[in-house]
Amino acid sequence: AAVPPVAETTTRTTCPYCGVGCGVIARVAADGAVSVAGDPDHPANFGRLCSKGSALADTLSLDDRLLDPKIAGATASWDEALDLVARRFAETIAEHGPDAVAIYGSGQFLTEDYYVANKLMKGFIGSGNIDTNSRLCMASSVAGHKRAFGSDTVPGTYRDLEEADLVVLVGSNLAWCHPVVFQRLVVEKERRPSLKVVTIDPRRTATTELADLHLAIAPGGDVALFNGLLLHLLQEGVIDSAFVADHTRGLTDTLAAASGGAGTLAVDTGLDPAEIAAFYALFAATEKVVTVYSQGVNQSVTGTDKVNAIINCHLLTGRIGRPGMGPFSITGQPNAMGGREVGGLANQLAAHMDIDSAADRDRVARFWNTARVTDRAGLKAVDLFTAVADGRVKAIWIAATNPVDSLPDADLVRRALETCPFVVISEVMAATDATPYADVLLPAAGWGEKDGTVTNSERRISRQRAFLPTPGRTMPDWWIFAEVGRRMGYDAAFSYASAGDVFREHAALSGFENEGSRDFDISGLADVDTAAFDNLAPVQWPVRRGDRSDGEGDDQRFFADGRFFTPDGRARFVPTPVLPLQIDASRPMVLNTGRVRDQWHTMTRTGKAARLTSHIAEPFAEIHPEDAARLGVTPAGLVRIASRHGAAVVRALVTDRQRRGSVFVPMHWTGQNSSSGRIDAVVAPAVDPVSGQPGLKATGVDVIPFAAS
Ligand code: SF4
Fold it and tell me: Taking every annotated instance into account, which residue ranges of this chain make up the domain 4Fe-4S Mo/W bis-MGD-type (predicted)?
């Protein structure tokens, strides 16, 4: 038998895809071949990986990588590129003020990348104009958490799904989008069939196959459904009166708002009253309930209200923060949570501090030793690119994301970059739909090549570790931001030697004058030395000074004691009136966008793995047979999906999995890998007024057979 190659290195790291945050063991053999396996000791996945995670080794080729800095398309040195970026940013600020520049980053950043970028923009440039594609991911959950809890705190842990007697999945195709958490749920349901699962989703999906009850809700019906549940719970006496009296405020107004929609529940939800009654009875009768929600809730112009309508039901019943109970936002991106920790959104300050609070700004300013901390929120993603388009923002730096394909009204983003006087793009890939508009391209290190931390949906911080050398002249994103900061004159504030240096500063800031008064505190990790950082085991926050930090057996929950992070320590019920679906009514179909099982974002990595692209090879439009017949759409025929913003042409997938009146199109395909399937060019740029998150799941569109268009 052939002797297997001797593995030269074995490295524990974390999957770079979804918010589950699975531990990965990467092996580099003597011949350089890389293989990956699930880390059996990682508490998110216990050795499991999904199809995307299992194929990570197939995505590491250097084909198509950006390996050198480029200025106007020509190879440049790092010094030339960084000097130019620093000079143009400084000139723009001098001439037009700090709000004339902006950074648009990514939930793909490691926490250290996020931290340095935010420090540069909010602490030294003095503008809030740094936002990220996490705005598209979970901004509504952040806003909903803050309204209800006074802090952006996910109360529970993945283990709660296994300890619950009822798991309600709202707007979540968990089987495809968070597959390892789904696998944990499947295993538990097989072991304990009394565990019930309810799915609330306009579509029948791989997730709904697990459900005891599937509510194929109408687009935008979630607030009405949970308002109705709140009234039902009250009517049935399923209320934790002591918890409500001692630990909450706002129930009366919230009930009044909910009562306003009571007469139109079936119409607003599009559901059979018997199905609604079955769900309400199950929820009422089951103490241990976890309500998991994801992009079907967040990516809506009423997303924040949807989040609060769900949380309201858990507050009324006191089902929060205890094993097997609680509302649970699962993030789409690998480090959306880490970004929130460092203030990665335009309306946040570092370490869960508030940009609107003079005391918080002062605290950050003293810690960073700067007098330039911005005193107001910056532009959120959609508004940011509108400001680029209309000339208010004159220099933009895009890093680790491609807004030309992923933001709504994507053609407007393209036009904005065409006209912007100075565009910098930090990229792993040599060519995306955005790179042609870059004045400066900066080559970034990718997964497997850089060090740092990420935080998953259950607040668990895990290390990403390098197991490959950085190719060409690529560098980590934190280093690139820091070098520009130094060249802009802030040398002392940005003189980091390693990701560990950044992490220690981030951890120290979280505990600076904090004294346990906030949810996010990892000051117990502020003194980790290089070896301890290298060996850091996955650990859930908070890790306050004096806490254990080995991460073992630490399924920590918030709010079991009824203490919240509002000024009076009480949670808030939030009134969530039912609003009509806000779409272009002149176009009769509702476009819903989302993911497929084996692709990630714009396919720059997953598109390299043949075993992933073989799952679904091209974009498609899921449409109900009755709609197809009415519109003259034939199975596998081409259809044109058009809004007033743009159009895409994809193949029709006629299926009764899709709700009548809606059409689903995946969001992965771009101008690089599909001639006509760039669906975000079609999506309307309407946003939730509280969170600024775009409503990516409800755009009014026409669906027309392509041959007839
Ligand atoms: Fe990666 Fe998410 Fe799959 Fe885990 S579930 S392997 S984090 S994509």
Answer: 8-64
Task: State both tokens at 92.
Answer: 């723009």
pLDDT, residue 6, reads 56
Which ligand 1 atom sits nearest the alpha carbon of residue 49? 6
Weakly modelled stretches of the chain, pLDDT under 70: 1-7, 548-554, 708-709
CA 707 to ligand 1 centroid distance, Å:
40
Select from 13, 17, 174, 181 the residue to mutate for testing ligand 1; criterion: most ligand atoms less than 8 Å from CB: 17
Confirm if 321 and 156 have CB atoms less than 8 A apart: yes
Residue with the smallest CA separation from ligand 1 atom 4 is: 22
Taking residue 650's Cβ as centre, other Cβ atoms within 10 Å add up to 23
Q: What is the Cα gyration radius of the chain?
A: 24
Q: How far is the CA of 601 from the centre of ligand 1 (A)?
A: 13
> Which of 14, 18, 333, 598 has most ligand 1 atoms within 8 Å of CB, for mutation?
18
What b-and-e string marks burial along 496-530, b requiring 16 or more CB atoms within 10 Å of the CB?
bebbbbbbbbbbbbbbbebeeebbbbbbbbbebee
CA distance 565 to 581: 33
Q: What is the ipTM of this complex?
A: 1.00
Protein residues whose CB sits closer than 6 Å to any atom of ligand 1: 15, 17-18, 20-22, 45, 49-50, 52-53, 178-180
CA 261 to CA 243: how far, in whole Å?
26
The residue contributing the CA closest to ligand 1 atom 2 is 18
List, for residues 362-391, the tens digit of each pLDDT value.
999 999 999 999 999 999 999 999 999 999
